[in-house]
Amino acid sequence: MDRKIIIITGGSRGIGAETAALAASEGYAVCISYLHNRDAAEAVVESITRDGGDAMAVRADVAIEADILNMFDKVDRQFGPLTALVNNAGILEKQMRVDQMDVARLQRIFTTNIVGSFVCAREAVKRMSTRHGGKGGAIVNISSIAARAGGPGEYVDYAASKGAIDTLTIGLAKEVATEGIRVNGVRPGVIYTEIHASGGEPDRVERVKAAVPMQRGGQPVEIAEAVMWLLSDKASYTTGALLDVTGGR
């Protein structure tokens, strides 16, 4: 059987780290990218290798094309032909209204969340598509329920960036459907991760969970499980889908 090889961007914590652990447990050689937290990324790698898996961490800012190219090149050389990509890396900034946002903030959000995902997807397709001599594969893009809710009063820019990810998912899925690649998206609801601190409200999940029909926030592993199902052969006829994992919200 061909070796399964996965890149997970933003894999040092939260959803990315849980996805890396699950992927390794299912036999994937795992590459995670990180931006600032090298220690956390190395801890994820150490945990995987301690259990007999194969993993590496690469520092890569997905807002910088050269960093992405370097990461994919390292995977090519160290692991071999890529079979899966999880576009997980994303940022948000301090909660504010649109009429307070400056262009520099918008460019940071959109370059990381949208352009970074596009470039990673491009590089994955170049390697996996049968059109390019690849053997196929799967891509999962991490969107957000914010794409549907809009993020009013908090981060419409982040929500808009995730709306773009939804469109990327649908369009790319149709584009490569006959080339052995499936492309799907997961839209998490309110999840207990550190990203809320970036918005200036570390305990945001506690504030908003009452609006969730299940009356609780989600755990990162609950998103990771959905990602791994979409990457698996059990989802062999699923492409262009957006799976809401939101507690019913």
From TrEMBL:
<dbReference type="Pfam" id="PF13561">
    <property type="entry name" value="adh_short_C2"/>
</dbReference>
<dbReference type="InterPro" id="IPR020904">
    <property type="entry name" value="Sc_DH/Rdtase_CS"/>
</dbReference>
<dbReference type="InterPro" id="IPR002347">
    <property type="entry name" value="SDR_fam"/>
</dbReference>
<dbReference type="InterPro" id="IPR057326">
    <property type="entry name" value="KR_dom"/>
</dbReference>
<feature type="domain" description="Ketoreductase">
    <location>
        <begin position="4"/>
        <end position="194"/>
    </location>
</feature>
<protein>
    <submittedName>
        <fullName>Short-chain dehydrogenase</fullName>
    </submittedName>
</protein>
<keyword id="KW-0560">Oxidoreductase</keyword>
<dbReference type="InterPro" id="IPR036291">
    <property type="entry name" value="NAD(P)-bd_dom_sf"/>
</dbReference>
<comment type="similarity">
    <text>Belongs to the short-chain dehydrogenases/reductases (SDR) family.</text>
</comment>
<dbReference type="GO" id="GO:0016614">
    <property type="term" value="F:oxidoreductase activity, acting on CH-OH group of donors"/>
</dbReference>
